[in-house]
Sequence to fold (247 residues):
Amino acid sequence: MPRWFYQLASPRWCYQITGKLLPGFAIAALLLIAVGTVWGLAFAPPDYQQGNSFRIIYLHVPTAYMAQSIYMTMAIAGAVGLIWKMKMADMVLKCCAPIGAWLAVLALATGAIWGKPTWGSWWVWDARLTSMLILLFLYLGVIALNSAIESESTAAQATAVLVLVGLVNIPIIKYSVDWWNTLHQPATFKVTEKPAMPVEMWMPLLLMVIGFYAFFAVALMLRLRNEILRRERRAGWVRELLQQQRG
Fold:
């Protein structure tokens, strides 16, 4: 295993490195989301079919992508925690869940706002929408299970198993529009294909997606640093750090 993998197991090292990375990611998130929002809402041309209502994609698509990506991050952290017994992986899983839940809520809410003028209804039991709703329930289940078990090690193992079992829902979300006859349109971005939208429409969307990834990094690092301090509060380096801050 490379050295950095074992460094990730050190709460002290993670706390120090996240402190150095936070400012850069925060600035990147702020700039990318600001530019993408202004460009998408004010300067991108209206869609030839949906008019200006399509502009909700500049919030809906990034939040939907992030809700799925965060769950994948939790699954990786859960697998690492179960196999290598790394408590930092357990902390990452725990800290990801509330962020993913909020982004899943945003994805569903913005999808409903988009669906009303497009489909004539706030909600339909479409395969993509239903699987996204299941994803939200999985996030809430992870949060509830973690809170219900007093032992942190037992809670970490239980939530990791739940996350890994729920991983089957991710390909269902991704390929639901291909496997079933759904109202939801196909993916806006595909790595293997050229975007169907003109560059002045997809470029601000790309900025928003990257900006939301940077925002997730910031939110995760902030929550992770608090979790490290809580769990390591009796460690000597934490006491020294708190003394330095008070002094």
User: Anything to note?
Assistant: The mean pLDDT is 90.
